[in-house]
Amino acid sequence: MLQALLLSCLLTASASCQRDSFTPSEKEKTTTSGDISVLMTTNNRAYDLTKLYVDFSDKFNMSPNTIKLLPATQYQTMDGFGAAITGSTCYNLMKMNKEDRTQFLTQTFSESQGLGMSYIRISIGCSDFSLSEYTLWDTPGKENFALQEEEKNYVIPILKEILAINPNLKIMGSPWTAPRWMKVNNLTDLQPFSSWTSGQLNPQYYQDYGWYFVRWIEEMKKEGINIHSITIQNEPLNRGNSASMYMTWQEQQKFIKVALGPQLKAANLQTKIYAFDHNYNYDNIEDQKNYPINIYNDPAAAAYISGAAYHNYGGDKAELLNIHNQRPDKELVFTETSIGEWNEGHNLEKRLTDDMREVGLGTVNNWSKAVIVWNLMLDTEKGPNRDGGCQTCYGAVDINSKNYKSISRNSHYYVTSHLSSVVKPGAVRIGTEGYTATGLEYAAFKNPDNSYAMVLMNDANENRKITLSDGTKHFSYDVPSKSVVSFKWSN
């Protein structure tokens, strides 16, 4: 049990590591193995990614609070969970000493020694959390394409360290803008628009921009980094980010159909394409609603597209279900959400259950195959950040900018960890029946190794004794109030 507490407290996760705040039962203190592994976090950090165990019951189950798994009822196959590895994240990680960095990355990404985060997102060129504004092709002429200093000195070294820890990691790439020389003010005037912010892609450069994606994927592959998926444009309806480009569904449909899709195919690249990559409410732009569905309505474009990606800065997660119901043949992934000053991002008593409801279980139970939050790591000054980007954001973890050693975990780290620790890539979400109650939310899965997983949140003000049954075996567990608990057991 002490070892579990020490694992929970790697790199001094601030108040969460005070031994006197940790109050497991006497039985929990001595239990180091059992039929079911349990990972628990309470919103007061009395339990903080604490690993516990429980055994199957040998008694007849008469509990009215039984949740039964239904493995024959199957939904989406899961790809993974994780966070964005931005330039700012990599800068902060590189400021750590090697031993501490390896310890943190192992805790975060290792499938056998850590929490098993399995899917990350990186930018193609700069993002609003980069050290400067740039693309990989800022001067016309194909000979001028090159990975830049941020990739060479920060992003690629960190990716290689993570891949050494988890070789099965999936990586998604998203551009924040095309090279400025490809941008115009609008699609009517087609006047040059040499700005990092806003503008649109000149149709004259569709083929060049398709080549840009292909070349980036190939250059990363030379570095030993395989790109699993891409989106076409981060937040295509947001003109105001520090690096941004406006891209309607009409533009995205045509670009994929005539340039990107055919070029990826010609290069024999299996990288998935996800459309959209923006808010549930389409920023309330009437003719952009149903953005991915409109793209899919052209079969030639749809043939190249795996699905659509969403953020939650506007609208409701029910939009995922709406899109799934219209096109159940296409995938859904959740690719960005932030915490910060505006939503009490450091207040775990509020954010743990709110974010698990909206970001974790809420997206998964609406058919999302992946959950990726924004910056994995920012410093305690909320940076490095850029003018025009978010200057009030927190990371999934924050590292002390005075020593680059002390780390505090925020809600998004717990949300993704509770999923990734028990739900493995290739797992299938399965059905459940039985006990429901206000404030109780959960999702069940069957992993590729046939083990079962359940992630459960109790947002009620009282503890709840829950019984879980897989049809042949069952066990009961006292789930604390305001907590998230992950269970995993062999079939």
Describe the fold and architecture.
With 491 residues, the protein is an alpha/beta fold. A hairpin with a 5-residue loop joins strand 20 (440-446) and strand 21 (452-458). It is built from 12 helices and 24 strands. The relative contact order is 0.16. It has helices spanning 2-8, 26-30, 87-95, 98-109, 149-165, 206-222, 249-266, 291-296, 299-302, 318-326, 348-364, 411-420; strands at residues 36-42, 50-54, 66-77, 80-84, 119-124, 170-175, 183-184, 200-201, 229-231, 272-279, 307-311, 331-336, 339-340, 370-375, 377-379, 393-394, 397-399, 407-409, 428-434, 440-446, 452-458, 464-469, 474-479, 483-489. It is 27% helix and 26% strand.
Question: Strand order across the biggest sheet?
Answer: 2-1-24-21-20-19-3-22-23
Helix content: 25-40%
Radius of gyration: 23 Å
Helix/sheet category: alpha/beta
Quantity of strands, as a count = 24
Largest sheet: 9 strands, mixed
So how many helices?
12
Separation of termini? 25 Å
Summary of the model, kept short:
This protein is α/β, with parallel strands linked by helices and 491 residues long. The chain is 27% helix and 26% strand. The longest helix is centred in the middle third of the chain and has 18 residues, at 249-266.
